[in-house]
Specification:
The protein has 250 residues and is an alpha/beta fold. It is 35% helix and 24% strand. α2 packs parallel to α5. Bound molecules: adenosine-5'-triphosphate (ATP). One of its GO terms (molecular function) is ATP binding.
């Protein structure tokens, strides 16, 4: 269970997040949406440890994430995929996904290159390939990331995040930059992650349509505040949400 509890984040005089609270239940697909500048990325960055909130707490089970350094999050079972993917474009898909697994190896990254036994190496490779197969990119494992279409690159980044065997997957605007066809494919993949892997997904997304078909629960931010929290049907019909998105009252 992820608890975001009264999180406030200020940048000088600007209040990016104002007492934001919501809960992501285990195994659920939770979307955090809102118009431009609503505070979604700020919230993602607080949850993933990149920003320390001015006040408030983020807890994963008993662990206070606001005190955990970003690189330690993976060991606590949090996988992250970023808006601008952090992949090495010259390396193969498999190598990028394997890099995501380094936190699971005994000595961390160096051990991955230097000290892993053959058997361990084979095990990690097999698992990385399995994850790629699951995401439908199994036929790309030997290709350079730089040569792949953007929709596939996004999936490689998700594969890298899944490689830490997370119980919570954080996705920051995964559909940004994708065409409608790629967006639909990605939505199906995210739905599949939640259905087949049983892990919780927090999806930060600008595109309301994308999340409505797949999310169990939706939290809506506007000007740094939670303006609605409920099922997709509930928030979709909320006059405050319609106003925030369309700028009109109904
Ligand atoms: N590092 C920063 N320094 C100063 N202000 C910031 C910083 N990051 C975000 N902000 C401000 O905080 C507010 C929330 O921005 P944020 O990027 O979190 O919104 P968002 O909902 O992710 O928007 P978008 O959909 O456009 O990405 C905005 O007013 C933004 O200008």
């Amino acid at each position: 269970m992820l608890h975001v509890d009264k999180v406030t984040l200020r940048f000088g005089g600007l209040v990016a997040l104002d007492e934001v609270s919501f809960t992501v239940s285990p195994g659920s697909l939770h979307a955090l949406i809102g118009p431009n500048g609503a505070g979604k990325s700020s919230c993602f960055n607080v949850i993933s440890g990149l920003y320390r909130p001015t006040s408030g707490l983020v807890r994963l089970g008993d662990e206070d994430l606001t005190r955990v350094r970003p690189h330690r999050l993976a060991r606590l079972g949090v996988g992250r995929a970023f808006q601008n993917t952090a992949l090495s474009s010259h390396s193969t898909v498999l190598d990028n996904v394997l890099l995501g697994r380094h936190v699971l190896t005994r000595g961390g990254f160096l051990a991955c290159g230097l000290g892993l036994t053959r058997r361990e190496e084979r095990r990690h490779c097999a698992r990385a390939k399995e994850i790629c197969d699951f995401l439908g990119i199994g036929d790309t494992v030997d290709q350079s990331v730089g040569a792949l279409p953007y929709g596939v690159v996004k999936k490689v980044d998700i594969a890298r995040a899944l490689a830490v065997e997370p119980s919570l997957l954080l996705l920051d605007e995964p559909a940004a930059g994708l065409n409608p066809e790629e967006t639909a494919a990605l939505a199906a993949t995210i739905g599949q992650i939640r259905a087949d892997l049983g892990i919780a997904v927090l999806l930060v997304e600008h595109d309301m349509e994308l999340v409505m078909g797949i999310a169990d629960r939706v939290t809506v931010l506007d000007f740094g505040r939670v303006i609605a929290d409920g099922t997709p049907a509930e928030v979709q019909n909320d006059p405050g949400v319609i106003k925030a998105y369309l700028g009109v009252t109904t």
